[in-house]
Amino acid sequence: MSSTSGGSTTLTAGTDKSDAGRQGGAGGSFMAGPVGRNLGLVVALVILCVVGVITAGDRFADVDNVLTILRLASVIGVVSVGMTFVIIGGGIDLSVGALAALASVWATTLATQQLAEDIHWIVMVFTALAVGAVAGLVNGVVIAYGKLAAFIATLAMLAAARGLAEIIANRRTQIVQDSDFLAFFAGDVLGIPTLVLIFALVAVAGWVLLNRTTFGRRTFAVGGNAEAARLAGIRVQRHTVKLYVLSGITCGIAAVMIMARTTTGSSTHGTLWELDAIAAVVIGGTLLIGGRGTIVGTVLGVVIFTTLGNVFTLNNLSSSAQAVARGVIIILAVMLQQRLATGGFSFRRPSAGGSSGGPSLSGSPSGAVSGGTTAEGGPGGARPTATGKTL
Questions:
Q1: By CB distance 3.0 to 4.6 Å, which of 112, 146, 192, 270 could disulfide with 142?
Q2: Global confidence as pTM
């Protein structure tokens, strides 16, 4: 904060993050912080496990059932990690399920499998990753440079990718023939399924990328206030493209995992994954308006949703009841999110002094102007007249 007199400015610099910190400190709300939110998710998971043990007994607590839950969570969990980056960056990706289906189909065509047989099964993995990355690149370019809303662009990609997958596969299920590929990805290491280890590695890599790199800091900045990020020197459009490419790569990894789990590549893979991923990310505490989120929260959200489905299945409850329960949980999670973020059930981004991400200045409309000064002749300040007097 700086203050001068006689034609200078009174400047108060602030950002969304520091402002949110002051709000949390003023209210003394531990749950508003990331540690508190994650602790709440852990408590919810423990309660859900207790309910599972009470209602399903040994069937739920069995080691094989726990490993089944982790296997199911691992595939959608990898997709959710990529979705977390996109949503923190202020976007949304509705095409993740279709991209995984397209990647699985392309990686299991006769030509790709023949090439894998001649060289190595890693060819199938690279094919899936490349398809996901290219599709994500298309999404990012259309959104960042084509100025198309992320919702519309990714919805179009959802339809296009699913249709292309059907054309390539001729609406047939393609069988994975490479036994070495299946043995590697469907196996386990020290009793832990390989798919679960892949999910763990992706989650750890995502956490490091988000919290310990410049890329992660820029992601928070772009999602919190894209214009302020641009003024700070961040290439917002280029960074947005990178976020969707990252999401596409995670879809490619998930495609490899679903190929190993089902031994097939199919245009029907990934149906409604986008909803599951968004639900897990929201439950994990990531704001849908961007600017805040955690990988740890997303992982817990995925496990909670998968465990909920497992408890429902063990108690012979219908999939329709599961869908209703998930919908209610998503609504409650979003409402709680907004309550913690803004102090009320409002979808407006929290701000202080009328500015977001920029300096606040007295003597301007609403008491603040981002980036201006009240110096004589400056934006928002007094202007000299021809006689030398100020207006």
A1: 146
A2: 0.77
